[in-house]
Write a structure and sequence with these properties.
about 180 residues, alpha/beta, about 20% strand
């Protein structure tokens, strides 16, 4: 069976729960590289020193919680899918965390959706990145076209369907 590499940043206070999650990830075909953090400072450090595919977080821990972790992630501006895996989160809190930036939540006792959730979150991120790259390429192309038109010595105009001129470069204006 082939495995898929997956870099997981775990926000989890229980070593035993982290091991169970790692076992589930490996069972689902992932070759997992991971780090476990329990505080805002260790989360910040992990986000600065490494690249992560996904963050999996417990909801509540003695010194830290999901909302705090989401705030730290938001500070960085990084686009990393954030999945909550918890046995203590209620429906209202789950909705609150989704509004705060979490991308999914699963109950610890029901991890059958874990692989599907991870794959969907990674596809969503890939689509966002492709959209962003396409938008950047379009802006760059528009800028190059604009510079070309404005710096040319040939008069250039753009007309609407009725033949009315709606844009003209400086060379065309000078010709008139």
């Amino acid at each position: 069976m082939t495995t898929t590499p997956l870099r997981v940043l775990m926000v989890e206070d229980s070593e035993m729960d982290a091991e169970l999650l790692l076992r589930e990830l490996r069972h689902n075909g992932y070759d997992v590289t991971h780090e476990r953090v329990q505080t805002a400072d260790t989360l910040r450090a992990a986000l600065q020193h490494d690249v992560w595919d996904i963050i999996i977080s417990d909801y509540s821990m003695p010194q830290f919680d999901t909302l705090g972790a989401l705030a730290v992630l938001a500070e960085t501006g990084l686009d990393i899918p954030f999945i909550i895996v918890s046995g203590t989160i209620g429906e209202e809190m789950a909705v609150q965390t989704l509004h705060a930036g979490a991308t999914d939540f699963l109950l610890k006792g029901k991890l059958s959706r874990l692989r599907a959730s991870i794959e969907q979150r990674l596809r969503d991120r890939a689509a966002r990145r492709a959209q962003s790259e396409a938008e950047q390429a379009l802006r760059a192309s528009e800028l190059r076209f604009s510079r070309l038109c404005e710096s040319g010595t040939v008069g250039i105009t753009v007309a609407d369907d009725s033949g009315r001129i709606v844009e003209a470069n400086e060379a065309f204006v000078g010709m008139l």
